[in-house]
Amino acid sequence: MKTELLDAVESKSLKSKVPHFEIGDIVEVYCRIQEGDKERTQIFSGTVIARKGRGINTTFTVRRIVGNEGVERIFPLHSPNVLDIKPVRSGKTRRAKLYYLRDRTGKAVKLTKRHSDHTISK
Question: How confident is the chain (122 residues) per 10-residue block, as mean pLDDT?
Fold first, then answer.
């Protein structure tokens, strides 16, 4: 009963069109940044290393390397400050959380590309 009521209230705040992306995919996240009275859009691109939560509480973690330092950001999926999510490339993984990428540097961070059957032509 309690979860049904919460789901009914939360459903008004959920985004209707959320792009499909999975763990290991490289995505571009378009964020709304407010500085004083100005507003701009910032792109944060990187590998999705985690996704958790349910409903309005769904979050995903994106990691990238900037100047030999790893930078991670956790984004709420249904936040109004997340304007758009664009999947760039899909990566092949065998686990749900890719926290092991934190220990890797250089080419070892790259995941192998997932091949889908519909893109291969004979």
Answer: 82 90 95 95 96 93 93 95 94 94 89 68 44
The CATH number covering residue 59 comes to 2.30.30.790
CA 32 to chain centre: 15
Range of the domain at 99: 24-104
Phi-psi bin for 55: left (phi > 0), alpha (psi -120 to 50), beta?
left
Element holding 3 (H helix, E strand): helix 2-10
Distance CA(52)–CA(42), nearest Å, equals 23
> pTM for this one?
0.85
The total number of structural domains that make up the chain: 1
Q: What is the DSSP string of 28-51?
A: EEEEEEEETTEEEEEEEEEEEEEE
Q: For residues 120 and 122, what is the distance between their CA atoms, to the nearest angstrom? A: 7
Residue 45, domain member (yes or no) = yes
